[in-house]
Amino acid sequence: MADQTHKITGIPYSVLDLATVVAGKTPEDTFRNSLDLARFVEKLGYTRYWLAEHHNMISVASSATSILIGYIAGGTTSIRVGSGGIMLPNHSPLVIAEQFGTLASLYPGRIDLGLGRAPGTDQITAMAIRGTRFNAANDFPEDVQQLQTYFSDDNADSQVRAVPGEGLDIPIWILGSSTDSARLAAAQGLPYAFASHFAPAQFLTAINIYRQNFKPSEHLKEPYVISCVNVVAADTDAEANRLVTSLLQFFMGVITGKRRLLQPPVDNMESIWTAQEAEAVGQMLGCSFIGSPETIQEDLQSFMDQTKVDELMVTSHIFDHQARLHSYEIFAEVIKKLNVPILS
Protein backbone atom coordinates (compact mmCIF):
# COMPACT_ATOMS: atom_id res chain seq x y z
CA MET A 1 0.00 0.00 0.00
CA ALA A 2 1.72 3.17 -1.17
CA ASP A 3 1.63 6.36 0.85
CA GLN A 4 0.67 9.22 -1.43
CA THR A 5 -0.38 12.82 -0.96
CA HIS A 6 -3.43 14.03 -2.81
CA LYS A 7 -5.13 17.39 -3.04
CA ILE A 8 -8.39 17.03 -1.17
CA THR A 9 -10.76 19.84 -0.30
CA GLY A 10 -13.31 17.64 1.43
CA ILE A 11 -11.59 16.48 4.64
CA PRO A 12 -14.16 16.93 7.40
CA TYR A 13 -13.54 19.65 9.95
CA SER A 14 -15.66 20.02 13.07
CA VAL A 15 -16.11 21.85 16.38
CA LEU A 16 -15.76 20.79 20.00
CA ASP A 17 -17.48 23.28 22.30
CA LEU A 18 -16.89 23.15 26.05
CA ALA A 19 -19.49 25.90 26.54
CA THR A 20 -16.80 28.00 28.17
CA VAL A 21 -17.99 30.80 30.44
CA VAL A 22 -15.89 33.95 30.05
CA ALA A 23 -15.19 36.46 32.81
CA GLY A 24 -18.03 38.95 33.23
CA LYS A 25 -20.59 36.67 31.55
CA THR A 26 -22.99 33.91 32.60
CA PRO A 27 -23.91 30.44 31.30
CA GLU A 28 -26.89 32.09 29.64
CA ASP A 29 -24.51 34.23 27.59
CA THR A 30 -22.41 31.15 26.86
CA PHE A 31 -25.33 29.17 25.48
CA ARG A 32 -26.41 32.07 23.29
CA ASN A 33 -22.89 32.36 21.88
CA SER A 34 -22.69 28.59 21.34
CA LEU A 35 -25.79 28.65 19.18
CA ASP A 36 -24.45 31.66 17.27
CA LEU A 37 -21.18 29.79 16.68
CA ALA A 38 -23.01 26.64 15.57
CA ARG A 39 -25.03 28.58 13.02
CA PHE A 40 -21.89 30.35 11.83
CA VAL A 41 -19.78 27.22 11.35
CA GLU A 42 -22.68 25.40 9.70
CA LYS A 43 -22.52 27.99 6.92
CA LEU A 44 -18.74 27.52 6.71
CA GLY A 45 -19.06 23.81 5.99
CA TYR A 46 -18.12 22.33 9.35
CA THR A 47 -19.35 18.74 9.69
CA ARG A 48 -20.09 18.31 13.42
CA TYR A 49 -20.69 20.37 16.52
CA TRP A 50 -19.92 18.37 19.65
CA LEU A 51 -20.36 19.31 23.29
CA ALA A 52 -18.42 17.77 26.17
CA GLU A 53 -19.72 16.63 29.54
CA HIS A 54 -18.00 18.28 32.50
CA HIS A 55 -19.10 18.89 36.08
CA ASN A 56 -18.22 21.22 38.95
CA MET A 57 -16.14 23.53 36.77
CA ILE A 58 -16.84 27.23 37.05
CA SER A 59 -15.73 27.96 33.47
CA VAL A 60 -17.45 25.03 31.72
CA ALA A 61 -21.25 25.06 31.38
CA SER A 62 -21.83 21.83 29.43
CA SER A 63 -22.84 19.64 32.38
CA ALA A 64 -26.32 18.88 30.99
CA THR A 65 -24.85 17.77 27.69
CA SER A 66 -27.91 16.12 26.14
CA ILE A 67 -30.01 19.23 26.75
CA LEU A 68 -27.44 21.44 25.06
CA ILE A 69 -27.23 19.07 22.09
CA GLY A 70 -30.97 19.45 21.62
CA TYR A 71 -30.67 23.23 21.89
CA ILE A 72 -27.96 23.40 19.23
CA ALA A 73 -29.62 20.88 16.92
CA GLY A 74 -32.93 22.72 17.21
CA GLY A 75 -31.30 26.00 16.23
CA THR A 76 -29.43 24.65 13.20
CA THR A 77 -30.54 22.79 10.10
CA SER A 78 -27.84 20.48 8.71
CA ILE A 79 -24.72 20.23 10.87
CA ARG A 80 -24.36 17.02 12.89
CA VAL A 81 -24.61 17.60 16.63
CA GLY A 82 -23.39 15.29 19.34
CA SER A 83 -21.37 14.55 22.43
CA GLY A 84 -17.65 14.80 22.71
CA GLY A 85 -18.48 13.14 24.90
CA ILE A 86 -20.98 11.64 27.25
CA MET A 87 -19.06 10.18 30.20
CA LEU A 88 -20.89 6.86 30.20
CA PRO A 89 -19.85 5.68 33.71
CA ASN A 90 -21.80 8.67 35.04
CA HIS A 91 -25.04 7.31 33.58
CA SER A 92 -27.16 4.25 33.06
CA PRO A 93 -26.78 3.00 29.47
CA LEU A 94 -30.58 2.79 29.27
CA VAL A 95 -31.01 6.47 30.15
CA ILE A 96 -28.43 7.52 27.54
CA ALA A 97 -30.12 5.29 24.95
CA GLU A 98 -33.45 6.99 25.71
CA GLN A 99 -31.97 10.50 25.65
CA PHE A 100 -30.14 10.03 22.37
CA GLY A 101 -33.04 8.06 20.93
CA THR A 102 -35.17 11.11 21.65
CA LEU A 103 -32.61 13.45 20.08
CA ALA A 104 -32.28 11.25 16.98
CA SER A 105 -36.07 11.13 16.64
CA LEU A 106 -36.29 14.91 16.82
CA TYR A 107 -33.32 15.51 14.49
CA PRO A 108 -33.05 12.44 12.22
CA GLY A 109 -29.65 11.72 10.72
CA ARG A 110 -27.90 14.49 12.65
CA ILE A 111 -27.02 13.07 16.08
CA ASP A 112 -23.66 11.58 17.13
CA LEU A 113 -22.97 9.81 20.42
CA GLY A 114 -19.36 10.07 21.57
CA LEU A 115 -18.58 8.08 24.72
CA GLY A 116 -15.80 8.46 27.27
CA ARG A 117 -14.92 6.60 30.45
CA ALA A 118 -13.47 9.48 32.50
CA PRO A 119 -15.69 11.22 35.06
CA GLY A 120 -15.33 14.66 33.48
CA THR A 121 -14.70 16.12 36.92
CA ASP A 122 -12.84 15.65 40.20
CA GLN A 123 -13.12 12.52 42.33
CA ILE A 124 -15.37 14.07 45.00
CA THR A 125 -17.86 15.23 42.38
CA ALA A 126 -17.63 11.86 40.64
CA MET A 127 -18.68 10.26 43.92
CA ALA A 128 -21.65 12.62 44.13
CA ILE A 129 -22.66 11.70 40.57
CA ARG A 130 -22.10 7.95 40.70
CA GLY A 131 -22.77 7.07 44.32
CA THR A 132 -22.48 3.33 44.74
CA ARG A 133 -21.42 3.05 41.08
CA PHE A 134 -18.18 4.94 41.77
CA ASN A 135 -16.08 2.27 40.05
CA ALA A 136 -18.36 2.12 37.01
CA ALA A 137 -15.47 3.04 34.70
CA ASN A 138 -14.37 -0.60 35.02
CA ASP A 139 -17.61 -1.59 33.27
CA PHE A 140 -17.15 0.81 30.36
CA PRO A 141 -16.66 -1.81 27.60
CA GLU A 142 -19.73 -3.76 28.77
CA ASP A 143 -21.77 -0.56 29.08
CA VAL A 144 -20.89 0.40 25.49
CA GLN A 145 -22.10 -2.99 24.30
CA GLN A 146 -25.27 -2.67 26.39
CA LEU A 147 -25.95 0.68 24.78
CA GLN A 148 -25.54 -0.86 21.34
CA THR A 149 -27.99 -3.57 22.36
CA TYR A 150 -30.60 -1.00 23.37
CA PHE A 151 -30.28 0.65 19.94
CA SER A 152 -30.60 -2.64 18.04
CA ASP A 153 -33.74 -4.13 16.52
CA ASP A 154 -32.78 -7.42 18.18
CA ASN A 155 -33.70 -5.95 21.56
CA ALA A 156 -37.39 -5.80 20.64
CA ASP A 157 -38.22 -8.94 22.64
CA SER A 158 -36.26 -7.87 25.73
CA GLN A 159 -37.98 -7.00 29.00
CA VAL A 160 -36.03 -3.70 29.05
CA ARG A 161 -36.25 -1.58 25.92
CA ALA A 162 -35.15 1.94 24.95
CA VAL A 163 -38.14 3.82 23.61
CA PRO A 164 -37.31 5.96 21.73
CA GLY A 165 -33.92 4.63 20.68
CA GLU A 166 -34.55 1.07 19.61
CA GLY A 167 -33.87 0.50 15.92
CA LEU A 168 -32.33 3.92 15.33
CA ASP A 169 -29.02 4.40 13.55
CA ILE A 170 -27.10 6.55 16.03
CA PRO A 171 -23.34 6.52 15.36
CA ILE A 172 -21.31 5.66 18.46
CA TRP A 173 -17.78 6.99 18.83
CA ILE A 174 -15.18 6.02 21.40
CA LEU A 175 -13.39 9.01 22.90
CA GLY A 176 -10.12 8.83 24.71
CA SER A 177 -6.88 10.34 25.89
CA SER A 178 -4.97 7.08 26.43
CA THR A 179 -4.13 3.80 24.75
CA ASP A 180 -6.88 1.92 26.64
CA SER A 181 -9.59 3.68 24.65
CA ALA A 182 -7.72 2.99 21.42
CA ARG A 183 -7.78 -0.75 22.06
CA LEU A 184 -11.49 -0.69 22.88
CA ALA A 185 -12.42 1.29 19.76
CA ALA A 186 -10.33 -1.08 17.63
CA ALA A 187 -11.78 -4.24 19.17
CA GLN A 188 -15.36 -3.04 18.68
CA GLY A 189 -14.83 -1.63 15.21
CA LEU A 190 -15.92 1.88 16.16
CA PRO A 191 -14.62 5.30 15.11
CA TYR A 192 -12.12 6.88 17.48
CA ALA A 193 -11.80 10.50 18.63
CA PHE A 194 -8.67 11.44 20.57
CA ALA A 195 -8.43 14.34 23.03
CA SER A 196 -5.14 15.62 21.63
CA HIS A 197 -6.20 19.16 22.54
CA PHE A 198 -5.19 18.54 26.16
CA ALA A 199 -3.44 15.12 26.19
CA PRO A 200 -1.12 15.04 23.18
CA ALA A 201 1.57 12.85 24.77
CA GLN A 202 -0.05 9.51 23.88
CA PHE A 203 -1.77 10.64 20.71
CA LEU A 204 0.48 9.03 18.07
CA THR A 205 0.87 5.83 20.07
CA ALA A 206 -2.88 5.56 20.60
CA ILE A 207 -3.90 6.07 16.97
CA ASN A 208 -1.26 3.60 15.80
CA ILE A 209 -2.60 0.99 18.22
CA TYR A 210 -6.12 1.72 17.00
CA ARG A 211 -5.23 1.38 13.33
CA GLN A 212 -3.09 -1.73 13.77
CA ASN A 213 -5.69 -3.59 15.84
CA PHE A 214 -8.88 -2.40 14.15
CA LYS A 215 -11.47 -5.09 13.47
CA PRO A 216 -14.09 -4.23 10.84
CA SER A 217 -17.66 -4.27 12.12
CA GLU A 218 -21.17 -3.65 10.89
CA HIS A 219 -20.66 -0.07 12.00
CA LEU A 220 -17.33 0.67 10.32
CA LYS A 221 -15.24 -1.13 7.71
CA GLU A 222 -11.98 0.82 8.11
CA PRO A 223 -10.46 2.75 11.02
CA TYR A 224 -11.52 6.37 11.34
CA VAL A 225 -9.66 8.87 13.53
CA ILE A 226 -10.69 12.31 14.69
CA SER A 227 -8.02 14.46 16.30
CA CYS A 228 -9.29 17.26 18.49
CA VAL A 229 -6.89 20.22 18.36
CA ASN A 230 -6.63 23.72 19.78
CA VAL A 231 -6.82 26.47 17.18
CA VAL A 232 -6.34 30.19 17.78
CA ALA A 233 -6.20 31.87 14.39
CA ALA A 234 -6.07 35.58 13.69
CA ASP A 235 -5.02 37.88 10.87
CA THR A 236 -1.48 38.10 12.27
CA ASP A 237 0.79 35.92 14.36
CA ALA A 238 1.08 38.68 16.93
CA GLU A 239 -2.67 38.91 17.44
CA ALA A 240 -3.06 35.13 17.66
CA ASN A 241 -0.25 34.95 20.22
CA ARG A 242 -2.06 37.54 22.30
CA LEU A 243 -5.44 35.81 22.01
CA VAL A 244 -3.98 32.43 23.01
CA THR A 245 -3.04 33.74 26.45
CA SER A 246 -6.67 33.11 27.47
CA LEU A 247 -6.14 29.42 26.68
CA LEU A 248 -2.81 29.44 28.55
CA GLN A 249 -4.55 30.83 31.63
CA PHE A 250 -7.30 28.23 31.27
CA PHE A 251 -4.76 25.39 31.18
CA MET A 252 -2.88 26.93 34.09
CA GLY A 253 -6.10 26.69 36.09
CA VAL A 254 -6.40 23.03 35.15
CA ILE A 255 -2.92 22.09 36.36
CA THR A 256 -3.04 24.18 39.54
CA GLY A 257 -6.64 23.37 40.45
CA LYS A 258 -7.36 27.11 40.64
CA ARG A 259 -10.03 27.36 38.01
CA ARG A 260 -11.50 30.70 36.97
CA LEU A 261 -13.85 31.97 34.32
CA LEU A 262 -12.04 32.28 30.98
CA GLN A 263 -9.82 35.33 31.35
CA PRO A 264 -9.17 38.10 28.82
CA PRO A 265 -5.90 37.97 26.88
CA VAL A 266 -2.76 39.61 28.26
CA ASP A 267 0.31 41.02 26.56
CA ASN A 268 2.57 38.43 28.19
CA MET A 269 2.32 35.61 30.70
CA GLU A 270 5.56 36.15 32.61
CA SER A 271 3.94 37.91 35.55
CA ILE A 272 1.10 35.38 35.71
CA TRP A 273 2.73 31.97 35.84
CA THR A 274 5.83 30.30 37.18
CA ALA A 275 8.43 28.54 35.05
CA GLN A 276 7.08 25.18 36.25
CA GLU A 277 3.51 26.12 35.32
CA ALA A 278 4.66 27.35 31.91
CA GLU A 279 6.42 24.04 31.27
CA ALA A 280 3.39 22.01 32.34
CA VAL A 281 1.05 24.03 30.14
CA GLY A 282 3.48 23.72 27.26
CA GLN A 283 3.20 19.94 27.44
CA MET A 284 -0.55 20.26 26.84
CA LEU A 285 -0.09 22.30 23.67
CA GLY A 286 1.48 19.66 21.45
CA CYS A 287 -1.52 19.63 19.11
CA SER A 288 -2.25 23.33 18.99
CA PHE A 289 -2.25 25.65 15.98
CA ILE A 290 -1.73 29.31 16.75
CA GLY A 291 -1.09 32.13 14.32
CA SER A 292 -1.95 33.78 11.04
CA PRO A 293 -3.52 31.85 8.15
CA GLU A 294 -0.05 31.23 6.69
CA THR A 295 1.35 29.93 9.96
CA ILE A 296 -1.68 27.75 10.63
CA GLN A 297 -1.52 26.26 7.14
CA GLU A 298 2.17 25.39 7.40
CA ASP A 299 1.85 23.81 10.84
CA LEU A 300 -1.35 21.99 9.98
CA GLN A 301 0.13 20.57 6.78
CA SER A 302 3.00 19.09 8.79
CA PHE A 303 0.54 17.64 11.29
CA MET A 304 -1.58 16.02 8.58
CA ASP A 305 1.49 14.62 6.83
CA GLN A 306 2.56 12.98 10.07
CA THR A 307 -0.77 11.71 11.44
CA LYS A 308 -3.04 11.20 8.40
CA VAL A 309 -6.09 11.65 10.61
CA ASP A 310 -9.46 11.40 8.91
CA GLU A 311 -11.05 14.45 10.51
CA LEU A 312 -10.02 17.48 12.53
CA MET A 313 -12.12 18.77 15.41
CA VAL A 314 -11.33 22.28 16.60
CA THR A 315 -11.75 23.77 20.03
CA SER A 316 -10.93 27.44 20.58
CA HIS A 317 -10.76 29.09 24.00
CA ILE A 318 -10.91 32.68 22.80
CA PHE A 319 -12.23 35.39 25.11
CA ASP A 320 -13.90 37.66 22.56
CA HIS A 321 -16.80 36.05 20.73
CA GLN A 322 -16.20 37.87 17.44
CA ALA A 323 -12.53 36.93 17.50
CA ARG A 324 -13.59 33.32 18.13
CA LEU A 325 -15.90 33.38 15.11
CA HIS A 326 -13.11 34.84 12.98
CA SER A 327 -10.72 32.11 14.12
CA TYR A 328 -13.13 29.40 12.93
CA GLU A 329 -13.57 31.30 9.66
CA ILE A 330 -9.82 31.42 9.07
CA PHE A 331 -9.47 27.72 9.89
CA ALA A 332 -12.18 26.76 7.40
CA GLU A 333 -10.34 28.64 4.65
CA VAL A 334 -6.97 27.16 5.61
CA ILE A 335 -8.09 23.56 5.67
CA LYS A 336 -9.47 23.81 2.15
CA LYS A 337 -5.96 24.63 0.91
CA LEU A 338 -4.23 21.61 2.45
CA ASN A 339 -2.65 18.74 0.58
CA VAL A 340 -4.17 16.01 2.71
CA PRO A 341 -2.24 12.72 2.90
CA ILE A 342 -4.28 9.56 2.51
CA LEU A 343 -3.39 5.91 2.08
CA SER A 344 -3.98 4.48 -1.40
Secondary structure blueprint with pairings:
Elements: E1 3-7, E2 13-17, H1 27-43, E3 48-51, H2 65-74, E4 80-87, H3 93-106, E5 111-116, H4 123-130, H5 140-151, E6 172-176, H6 179-188, E7 192-194, H7 203-213, E8 225-233, H8 237-243, H9 245-256, H10 275-283, E9 288-291, H11 293-307, E10 311-315, H12 321-335, E11 339-343
Parallel strand pairs: 2-3, 2-10, 3-4, 4-5, 5-6, 6-7, 7-8, 8-9, 8-10
Antiparallel strand pairs: 1-11
Helix pairs in contact: 1-12, 3-5, 6-7, 9-10, 11-12
* Proportion in helices: 40-55%
Q: Structural class, judged by helices and strands?
A: alpha/beta
Q: Name the average pLDDT.
A: 92
Number of strands: 11
* CATH fold label of the largest domain: TIM Barrel
Number of domains: 2
Number of helices: 12
Q: Over all CA atoms, what is the radius of gyration?
A: 20 Å
Coarse shape: globular
CATH architecture of the largest domain: Alpha-Beta Barrel
Low-confidence stretches: 1-8
